[in-house]
Design goal:
Helix content: 25-40%
Number of helices: 10
CATH architecture of the largest domain: Alpha-Beta Barrel
Distance between the termini: 42 Å
Structural class: alpha/beta
CATH class of the largest domain: Alpha Beta
Number of strands: 14
Strand content: 15-25%
Oligomer: single chain
Number of domains: 2
Order of helices and strands: EHEEHEEEEHEHEEHEHEHEHHEH
Low-confidence stretches: none
Radius of gyration: 23 Å
Bound molecules: phosphoenolpyruvate, manganese (II) ion
């Protein structure tokens, strides 16, 4: 971090500021120009509040050279992090490193028949994890809000019948006890900057699937992951699910370039959600293949056995038949990319 001081600052003030920074375990390198002093800070500056530095009256400019996150940063963990979860069937599922993980299932759990049928079909087609929302963040309070605890019970039943580990969204930390059997906890796009929730969920030590907010930058997503990791959780799955832009042709705009960007900046696995990114089921296979080609570590896809009558996100849900063909295609592409599905 570099601090440029205003011109004409007294020696005493420079000394005071230097002492203040050294108290924060930083080494201060001073460059003295004819009228301006520049201080270079060496050490862990992740905990330094840039805004607070700018507020000091002798400070002119503050320039951050290093990213403000540490635990999520690749520099501090050069190897890829891989998430490993064992299913009730004894098989371990991996996402990250060589492994390309496939998470599939309906947007929402609707009934026993629906979730069991979808779970069995996606498992047969090759999905590694079953997704299903029990608590749904809907834009309208009058839309279907999810089956809540009953939805989680049905998901657990699907887990017992198929052995597949579960991914489900938690909206409120008070729901945590009910998520005991959920293997990967999803924090949705709308909660990406719910810092109270991020801090609490970081203490639960389960893998967290963190979705990028509708209008959040790559750095903000990594900072949100850092919040979770600061609580103690080591594995966060970063999910690009499309961002808001000016074009309404698709529900969101899939920022496929976020995949290599996140992989460069972080060791955490990066997955893509082609369903929420496009909102259009016919585009989902193309975007899922793009995710693999871009270097993503997996996908999370909405699959419904009766999309026309789905209680949530039917338009973007692919059928089990389309899903099966997609997984076959991905398996072929995975060989070219030296990835394992
Ligand atoms: C979902 O996965 O069903 C969902 C609501 O996703 P997002 O938070 O990305 O909108
Ligand atoms: Mn959905």
């Amino acid at each position: 971090m570099i601090i440029a001081l205003k011109t004409g600052i007294s020696e005493e003030t420079v000394q005071q500021l230097t002492a203040y920074l050294e108290q924060k375990n930083l080494t201060v390198h001073r460059s003295q120009g004819t009228s301006q002093t520049v201080l270079g800070l060496v050490g862990d500056t992740t905990r330094i509040d840039e805004e607070a530095l700018r507020a000091i009256s002798c400070v002119d400019k503050v320039l951050r050279v290093q990213e403000p996150y540490k635990k999520a940063h690749r520099a501090f963990h050069p190897d890829d992090t891989c998430i490993e979860v064992q299913g009730l069937d004894g098989y371990t599922r991996q996402i990250g490193g060589q492994y390309f993980g496939i998470i599939a299932g309906p947007c929402s759990v609707e009934s026993e028949e629906q979730i069991i049928a979808i779970a069995k079909s996606v498992q047969k087609a090759g999905a590694h994890f079953l997704r299903g929302g029990a608590f749904k963040p809907r834009s309208s309070p009058y839309s279907f809000q999810g089956l809540g605890i009953d939805g989680l019970k049905l998901l657990i039943q699907a887990k017992q019948e198929t052995g597949m580990p579960l991914v489900s969204e938690l909206m409120d930390i008070q729901q945590l006890d009910s998520f005991e059997s959920v293997d990967v906890i999803q924090i949705g796009a709308r909660n990406m900057q719910n810092f109270t929730l991020l801090k609490e969920i970081g203490k639960c030590h389960k893998p967290i699937l963190l979705k990028r907010g509708l209008a959040n930058t790559i750095t903000e997503l990594l900072m949100a992951a850092e919040y979770i990791m600061a609580g103690g959780t080591e594995t966060v799955l970063l999910c690009e699910r499309g961002i808001r832009s000016f074009d309404s042709y698709t529900r969101n705009v899939l920022d496929i370039s976020a995949v290599p960007a996140l992989k460069k900046q972080s060791h955490l696995p990066v997955i893509v959600d082609p369903s929420h990114a496009t909102g259009l089921s016919w585009m989902v296979p193309a975007m899922a293949k793009a995710a693999l080609a871009a270097g993503a570590d997996g996908i999370i896809v909405e699959v419904h056995n009766d999309p026309e009558h789905a209680l949530c996100d039917g338009e973007q849900s692919i059928t089990p038949t389309v899903f099966r063909t997609l997984v076959e295609k991905l398996r072929n592409y995975a060989i070219l990319e030296s990835r394992i599905i």
